Amino acid sequence: MWIQILRNKYLTSRTLAQATIRPNDSPFWKGLMRIKSNFFQRVKFIVGDGTSTRFWEDTWLGDSPLALQYLMLYNITQRKQDYVSAVLQSIPINMHFRRALVGARWEAWMHLVRRLIQVQLSHHSDSVRWTLTVNGVFSVKSMYTDLANSGPLARSLHIWDIKVPLKIKNFMWFLHKGVVLTKDNLIKRSWRGRSNCCYCDQHETIRHLFLDCPLAKLLWRTIHIAFNVIPPTCINSMFTTWLSGVDVKLSRLIRIGICALLWAIWNTRNDIIFNGKKFNNFLQVIFRATSWIRTWSSLSLADNRELMATGCSRWEMVARVIFNRFGWRASNRLGV
Ligand SMILES: [Zn+2]
């Protein structure tokens, strides 16, 4: 019953119009439609009499809607929103297509028909099973977690899972959103001053400071040499596709290191600009970062703590070797 309520009673244009909400163009309507669609994507229908389950668009036969499993048929079907009961209650199957079923379409249709023959409608109502919980019962938490871990925007939310202090997570979030107060952003806020990078004198932007500055490039290079981790191509990819394909446990450790690196670049920069401190060389930034990683390791599990300690020593060793070999102008010598 409640499937019908959710589907038909409250969320129709007519009821919303009665509530003086204009469907289709209001943010409220769009939000409701999004919630509705997110909900039904995570539900599996257990078909009884088939009167509440949409034949093409609900998940009831297999692990995804038939519309996705048989897209070429769905594209040419005449009534995309029919219920299972409407399709299966007659012989032959009550389905009409706008085009002839030939070739691959015929094959697909035969494949589907073979599966439909196994389906027995009953006198019970359809029910739903929530696919994200073991007991099949809907929980807000399971939906929230699933939404947070899927979708292009939400993927960046792994920031909040990294085992670093909250202020560092906030900093990373601001970085992702492009609102860290580098000089270009300050100028947009009517700040008057030179926009030069304190490390190299070029125009300071977020991308420059953390990726393109010769110092940043050199720092990323040390990581590449020490851990064979290729630097991200842009700030956005650092939070999304970068590290996809890397083992999950390993990528979490790498992200802790990257938080430390970026935080060290930022704090060293602030010390130079606001506290008049002198910048000596890139080792300064790396040792700052490793000391934070060692401190933050207390937030991680014991076996990860050990890996983090080993990683810090390795990074420092590689940095020292580069420094001893090329000096503080290593960036020129390494061609970064
Ligand atoms: Zn620079």
Concise synopsis of the structure shown:
Residues 138-220 form the Reverse transcriptase zinc-binding domain. The protein is mainly α and 336 residues long.
Topology record:
Blueprint: H1 2-9, H2 13-18, H3 27-41, E1 43-46, H4 66-69, H5 71-74, H6 84-88, H7 104-116, E2 127-130, H8 140-148, H9 166-177, H10 183-188, H11 206-212, H12 214-227, H13 235-239, H14 248-275, H15 282-296, H16 302-326, H17 330-334
Antiparallel strand pairs: 1-2
Helix pairs in contact: 9-14, 11-12, 12-16, 14-15, 15-16
Bound molecules: zinc ion.
Coarse shape: elongated
Cα end-to-end separation:
65 Å
Low-confidence stretches: 9-23, 152-156
Q: For the residues shown, what is the average pLDDT?
A: 81
Number of strands: 2
Oligomer: single chain
Strand share of the residues?
A: under 5%
Largest sheet: 2 strands, antiparallel
**Total number of helices:** 17
Explain this structure to me?
The protein is mainly alpha-helical and 336 residues long. The chain has two domains: 42-147, no CATH class; 152-334, no CATH class. 54% of the residues lie in helices and 2% in strands. It is built from 17 helices and two strands. The chain has helices at 2-9, 13-18, 27-41, 66-69, 71-74, 84-88, 104-116, 140-148, 166-177, 183-188, 206-212, 214-227, 235-239, 248-275, 282-296, 302-326, 330-334, and strands at 43-46, 127-130. It has a two-stranded antiparallel sheet. The N and C termini lie far apart (65 Å). Zinc ion binds at residues 197, 199-200, 202, 208, 213.
